[in-house]
Each structure stands twice: as C-alpha cells, then as structure tokens.
Design brief:
Distance between the termini of chain A: 52 Å
Helix content of chain B: 25-40%
Oligomer: heterodimer
Number of helices of chain A: 17
Order of helices and strands of chain B: HEHEEHHHHEEHHEEEEEEEHEE
Structural class of chain A: alpha+beta
Helix content of chain A: 25-40%
Strand order of the largest sheet of chain A: 2-1-8-7-6-5-4-3
Shape of chain A: globular
Structural class of chain B: alpha+beta
Shape of chain B: globular
Largest sheet of chain B: 4 strands, antiparallel
Largest sheet of chain A: 8 strands, mixed
Number of domains of chain A: 2
Number of helices of chain B: 9
Strand content of chain B: 15-25%
Radius of gyration of chain B: 20 Å
Number of strands of chain B: 14
Radius of gyration of chain A: 24 Å
Strand content of chain A: 5-15%
C-alpha cells in the first residue's frame, strides 16, 4: 500500500494527515522512521504493540472517536475489579485561574483533562489527554508491559483514525528522537511540566479550578470528569513520578549489557549536562496575595540544581530559602510591565493602564526536569557516572542549572561507547582534563579541571563554593536592583522555554514582560551578578 | 430530608455511650450555633433541613504541611517528623523505629482534641482504655490531666514523635477551628472593588487562617465558591477531619509485597477514617522505598496521605454581597 509522505518532523505532522486517511484504522506514523502514515494490520499490531489500549481496543477493531468512548471501551473489555477500571481524573489549564469577567472569555484557557487508568506500585498503565470527553483530539500514552515503555497514540484525520506515534524507545533513538511527539517527550517519559507544589495551572489543593473557569453553558463543567477530578498532588505522586521512574528503570535495563557495557552513554550524559526539557516551578505564594510587608519565597531550583546537588547521592549543601520583599516583587511587575497575554486571541490581563499581573503563583521559571533527575539518579546507581563525576559536571557553571552553554560544552568529551560501565566516568574525566590543557583560561574544561582537582573529598570544597554563592544570592535579593536583575534572568530563561515545543503551545504558560526585559540570553555568575551569555 | 437527629462522633466512633453521644452532639451544636447566626449561608443540619439532593463535595489536601517545604526533602522530612507543632494540616503522625533505627510503623491521626476531651469528660475509663490500647501501657486519669485538673491534650502520652500517638495536639488542629473556618468562608470578599477569590488572598483578606497552609486556603476557597453561587453550606455528617487515602503508587517493597497491604485503618471506617497505620513487618525492615528513596521518615508517607472534610451545599437562592477585607 502506498504511503503519502508528510514532510514535517514536528508534532504538527499529525495535523497534516489527510482527513480521508483510512477511517477506522490504526496508522503507524513514527516520525523519522515512517515517511508518512501507513495502516497497521492486526498482525502488525500484534507484533509491535503490547499495551492495553492496543490489545483491548485497537486489535479488537474498536477505534473510539471520543475520550469518553475510549474509556467506556476499556470498561467493556475488562472484568469488574480490573485495575484498568480504576480511574483518576485531573484537570489543567494555563488560563484556569484567570479572574472572572468578560475579558477572560477572550483567553484560550487551554483547559484539558488527563485521565489515568490502572494501578500498580510502579505506575499506571493508561493515560488519556483530551480537552473534552466528547470531542477533539485525543492523546494516549499506554504502558507496554511486553516491550516496556509507553506507546504513544493520538487521533488524526479529525478523529476518524488513530495513529501510533512511537514508543518511549523512539525518543532515544537517533532516527526518531526529538521528532513528532518526542519534541515534547525528549526522553520518552510522561510530561507533567508543573510537577511540583503548588503545581501552577493544575487543579490542586492550593488552587482549585472551579466551574467558572469554563464558559457559561460549557458541558464540561457538569461532566463527571470535572466533578471527580483529583488534585495535581495526586498526579505528581501517584502517576507522574512513578511513571517517569518506571520508564527510566526499563530504559536502563536495556542499556546495560551482560558483559558490563553500557549502550549509548552519551545520551545519558546529555540529560545531565544539557537541558533537553524543563519543568516549571514557582513560588508557593500566589501573586494576587502579595502585598507590601510580606516576603515572597522564590524557588531554590531557579538558582541552583538543588535536587541533584543537595540530593542524597551527592549530598552537597542545600540552599537556604530565597526570599524577596513583597514591595520589590510588586515593583518588578510594574518595572517590566508584567501581564498575562494571549497573542492568539488578543487577551490581556489586566487591561487597565497602571495595573500589572503575574501567573497565579508568582515567579514561574524553568528548573531541571524531573525526567533528567531520574536519569541522573539511575546513571549513578548503575555505576555509569560516579558521584564525583556527576558533582564535577554539575558544579561547572552551577549558578545556571538550566540552559548552561558552558556545561553543555562538556558533552563533546563524553565517550560514545562504554565497553566497561564502571570505567566510563574516569575516561570522560580524563578526556576533559586532556582538553583543559589546551583550552583557554575560563573555559568549561578548565573549570571542570578545577572541580576535579578537589578529589574524592569534594563535598567540603564544593559546599564552600555553594555557600558563598547562596550568600551572594541572598544579598542580591535584598535590594530592589538586585531583584530586578534576577527578574531579567528569569525572563531570559522563560524565553528559552517559549522557544521549546513544550513552551510554545500556550502563551499563558508564563506572564509576558516587556520586550526589552531580556533582549539577549543572560546567565548568573557565582557572585550572583547577571551577565550576558557569551 | 428530616432534620439530622444529632451529630454523630467523627468517624461514627463507638467509644461513647448513648448519653455521651448525645452530649457530644450538643457540644457540637453549640459550636455550630456560634456561627449560624452571623453567617447566614452556614447552617446547622440539626436545626435546618438539608435537601436530599444536596451536593456533597470532598475538600482534600495533603497531610504534609505546605509551610514546611523549604530545604532538601531529607531536611524537611526530618524537621517535620521531629516537631508536631509543625504538623498543622489537621493530621499528625508519629514514627516507631526498631533498634537499628529502621522505620517500623507510622501512625497518622485526624482525631481532634475536642473529641478526646469530651470523651475523657463523660467517660474517663473509655478514654483511658484508648490510651492504653495505643501506647501499650497503663495510663491513669492523673496522667491525662493538667495542673488545673482538665484534660490535657499535651499529656506525655500524646506528645511523642517516636512512639504511639493518640490524637491531634497542634494548636490549630481542632474540629471547632474547621467549623469556624467553613462558616467564616461563606462571606464573599472584595478589595478595592475587585472580588477576592484566589485562595491565599481570601484567607488573608478574611482572616481565615494561614495563607500558605494546604488546608485553610483550600477549605476557604471551596466554601467561598459555593457561597458565591447562592448556596447554603454545612459540613457533611458526621462532621470531622478524615484521612482520605494513602497513595501507594511509587512505594516499593524489597520482596514485591503490595504496599497497600502495609496500610490499615485503625479507627473510623474506610469512608471516614481517623487513624491509619503503615506497619512494616520484620522481613521488610529497611526494605521499603518511596519514590526510589529508602523510607526513613514518616513525612515521606505524609506527603502521600490525603486529609479532607466533606462540604454539603444546596441552592438556597441567596444573593450574597461582598464585604471588604478584614485587614
């Protein structure tokens, strides 16, 4: 059967599947591997797909047109008491906390449901994402117990057909990684951008999403999914983290050879020294509650990779609580013209001159993604990275936990193969040290060499570096000018996220600041001053 | 629906005699009565009919205190485990360890001191019996009395962080406080002519507790949203704070034992649990991980324990107006 090629390597390729393409069929369209969507026979499905969505529905010829029908199909195909009948429903929307009023109706609130089915200590088996139970695009991630990893599906052709878009393994394959859905799932994991308390944009204990977030008459506000929704605290703990760790564990199983080798180690190092994706983290304080006289906590992981450096494996000094005075925070909103803007609809909040706004929870910024932290932890447990190497890599340009071009430069020294897992760290360190001799002063390699020189007892000297930096950050935040610089840095990092697939979808992901806030990429220095990236 | 005859004890606990149960109901009616006059949309279901089709909404939050999230996970877990004054989300816990220092049991409670003070007052023997059951040794009435002769929630048996626990003792963790919060949250607020609906702002504006807690803003916002729809509101029977769940996904055991089997409800029912215990048998000592980390602190489980209360509401045709902030 001929395949109509689609010349698009992004996730938008799925929007270009012709509307008359094989209704009621499963199309294989793994971007980077398939030139275009091609129908899968039952034998194809049986050979490649071992997840419950495929085995219970698709292979039985059931191609649901709505998310509600999909879940009903799972119910019909399973017996009472089957974990796949156990449902958890979650809700998010980048505009879910906009103030009431006619202006808000102009906004694309981005409301969508996430449904989790199945229950096991190591995670759930089926995740469904849909803006509505009864209409629109449906995306599915289903755990394949036979092959391991999530199989990714979505509806195409205006819901007339389904596409199999790849397995988590395709995310880490050279041909398909970063393409199609793996633009947003770069390591093949489940994506929950706002993974941590207070879970900006999600229905959660600190920020309920009420029915008024929907337009009057929107049936979703009366649907059982809305009434039964659980908080993002449950999603983080019961679904997202176990699922990410589950894929990490499965992935590492496949990478470690019986002969002690480790396959494609560079891909793991890439997740340590670069920023393939991010999570979004905020203050615990809602922006609307900030007044003069109170202090606003800022997320520590904006300033340093506390999750890795101060975690149990590396054990370095944890940052203190970083606080800024409410008056400085409010002054910065005004200084940089902060507002909630949706360019796709012309929505702006607030409209009134002289008034400013931030995201619901203050100071939304990117942090190193949990999926990359999970990979780092697994790499240390597997012996691929020693704690010393991991600490030395992460302590290069440590004031910039994300988007560090200096740290990313070290990836060039990562050996492409690891015939002996246990020897990998020493070999990579030696390669960087060898390059450091030729590299100029101030190079990342020289900085690494300085770190490596601390030896096996690196904790005390690294703690001293960190503590000096923490003190400098605390001092900077005490002044209005210092905080304004931090806001410029934050905006610089937000703009990097907006250029990523996960940041481009919804304008309301972050507040919008004046264009001249951070016209060029910025970086933090160990003395807590802000420089332009060079 | 006929009037509720009387308030049952939290979790429908059966410690009290019929006379004691009636007295508990009267005590709780007095608490409700302090607010029903001033807050028109807050009702006492023993005094006002609640329609059969009234909506019941569970308001739930995490047991680990939201105000204590600073530092590394290990730092915050250790800090909160060691100080029950920090456990301010209507749930407290205590950790039992073996000689090797391994966690062997974590007991969570949402039983309020209001109830235990009442029980001690009307049936001291029953109260002592509970203490003896939980702490495993003889307890006398003198042990539980303050110098003034009243029931002391901070008695030596109820203040431990490293042994059995009986009921809540943190200053904010009372049923009366929850009732007051629900009642006062029925008032709609505005500041500078703008409605105040964001949870933290509402708490600050209405003087409804601690804005950065999990519980207070959540209860306040949920009740306030219902009040804005013109509904009348009360707490579902039996009024109480309940343990809603322990999320076990991500908890793993050395031998593959389902972690659900390590969790049991010791007081109340599955729908209205007030005491839960996670107990690790000998063969699994040191062999439980939570999100990949060894279980070393009760707080690791507290981050997975849900706490909640249920709010009943029904359309009452109210047209509430907004009042300015208290401060």
């Amino acid at each position: 059967m001929s395949v109509t090629p689609i010349d698009d390597r992004t996730c938008r390729a799925f929007d270009r599947v012709p509307s008359d393409a094989n209704p009621g069929a499963l199309l294989r369209f793994v971007v980077g591997e398939d030139p275009g969507p091609r129908p899968m026979s039952n034998a194809d499905m049986a050979a490649e797909l071992g997840d419950p969505f495929a085995t219970l529905l698709l292979r039985a010829g059931t191609f649901p047109r709505t998310a509600e029908a999909l879940l009903a199909g799972i119910d019909d195909a399973t017996a009472a008491g089957d974990p796949l009948r156990s449902q958890m429903t979650f809700l998010l929307g980048e505009g879910s906390q906009l103030p009431d009023g006619p202006d808000a109706r102009e906004a694309n609130r981005g409301m969508r449901f996430i449904i989790a089915r199945g229950s096991a200590p190591d995670g759930i088996d089926l995740l469904v994402s849909a803006a509505s139970p009864t209409a629109g695009v449906i995306e599915v991630m289903a755990w394949d117990r036979r092959a391991g990893g999530f199989n990714l599906y979505r509806t195409v052709s205006d819901g007339r057909a389904w596409a199999f878009a790849g397995n988590s393994r395709h995310a880490i394959s050279a041909a398909t990684g970063g393409k199609g859905p793996f633009e947003s799932h770069p390591s093949g994991s489940l994506l929950m951008k706002e993974l941590k308390f207070p879970w900006l944009h999600w229905h959660s204990p600190p920020a309920n999403i009420f029915a008024r977030a929907f337009e009057p008459g929107d049936e979703r506000a009366n649907h059982r999914w809305f009434k039964d929704k659980l908080g993002a605290d449950v999603l983080e703990t019961s679904v997202a983290i176990p699922s990410i760790d589950r894929w990490t564990a499965k992935r590492f199983e496949g990478l470690i050879g019986a002969d002690g080798s480790f396959q494609r180690p560079g891909r793991v190092v890439e997740q340590v020294v670069t920023t393939p994706t991010v999570n979004i983290v905020t203050s615990n304080r809602s922006s609307g509650a900030v007044t003069n006289g109170i202090e606003v906590d800022l997320p520590a992981t904006f300033f340093v990779d506390a999750d890795a450096l101060a975690g149990p494996q590396l054990g370095l000094a944890a940052p203190p609580g970083f606080l800024v005075a409410g008056e400085h925070y409010l002054a910065a909103l005004e200084q940089f013209g902060s507002a909630l803007v949706d360019r796709t609809t012309g929505f702006r909040h607030p409209r009134e001159p002289g008034r400013f706004a931030d995201t619901h929870f203050a100071f939304a910024v990117p942090e190193r993604a949990f999926e990359d932290q999970s990979t780092l932890r697994a790499a240390i447990e597997a012996g691929l990275l020693t704690p010393r190497l991991a600490a030395c890599l992460l302590m290069v340009d440590f004031p910039n936990p994300v988007f560090s071009s200096r740290r990313a430069a070290l990836l060039a020294h990562a050996p492409a193969t690891a015939p002996a897992t246990a020897a990998y760290s020493e070999e990579m360190a030696n390669r960087i040290l060898a390059a450091a001799d030729a590299a100029g002063d101030g190079s990342p390699e020289r900085e690494f060499a300085d770190r490596w020189a601390a030896g096996a007892d690196f904790v005390a000297p690294f703690d001293a570096l960190l503590q000096a930096y923490y003190d400098a950050v605390t001092a900077r935040l005490a002044s209005r000018a210092g905080y304004f610089d931090v806001v410029r840095l934050a905006e610089s990092r937000r703009l990097r996220v907006r250029a990523m697939p996960i940041g481009a979808e919804f304008d309301l992901l972050f507040a919008t600041l004046r264009d001249d806030t951070a016209p060029r990429p910025l970086r933090m220095t160990p003395t807590a001053t802000i420089d332009e990236e060079t | 629906m006929p009037l509720l005859d009387q308030f049952a004890p939290p979790g429908d606990l059966e410690d009290l005699s019929p006379v004691g149960r009636r007295a508990w109901s009267e005590a709780l009616q007095a608490v409700f009565g302090r607010f029903t006059g001033d807050f028109l949309q807050f009702i006492d279901p023993t005094a006002t009919d609640v329609p059969d089709d009234a909506d019941v909404a569970l308001v739930s939050w995490g047991a680990f205190p939201a105000t204590q999230r600073s530092g590394t996970p290990e730092q915050r877990w250790q800090r909160v485990d060691a100080n029950r004054d920090l456990q301010d989300e209507y749930c407290e816990w205590s950790v039992e360890r073996d000689d090797a220092g391994e966690v062997r049991a974590v007991t969570f409670t949402t039983e309020t001191p209001d109830y235990h003070a009442h029980l001690f007052g009307v049936d001291a023997d029953a109260a002592l019996g509970l203490y003896e059951q939980f702490v495993g040794r003889r307890v006398t009435a003198r042990d539980l009395r303050s110098a003034a002769g009243e029931y002391d929630k901070n008695n030596a048996f109820n203040t431990r962080v490293d042994g059995p626990i009986v009921h809540l003792r943190q200053a904010s963790n009372t049923l009366a406080a929850a009732v007051q919060l629900a009642a006062e949250a029925t008032i709609l607020r505005e500041r500078d002519g703008q409605p105040v609906t964001d949870a933290q702002s509402l708490v600050a504006c209405g003087g409804l507790g601690e804005p950065l807690r999990n519980s207070d803003p959540q209860i306040a916002a949920a009740v306030n949203n219902l009040a804005a729809e013109g509904r009348d509101i009360t707490l579902a029977a039996p009024p109480g704070l309940y343990i809603t769940d322990l999320m076990t996904n991500g908890i793993q055991t050395r031998d593959g034992t389902d972690p659900k089997t390590l969790w049991s409800i010791q007081r109340g029912s599955s729908q209205h649990a007030v005491r839960g215990r996670f107990e690790i048998p000998d063969e699994l000592a040191g062999g439980v991980t939570v999100s990949g980390r060894p279980l070393r602190f009760g707080s690791q489980l507290a981050e997975r324990v849900g706490v909640g209360l249920s709010v009943v509401s029904f359309p009452a045709g109210r047209r509430p107006t907004r009042e300015p902030c208290r401060s």
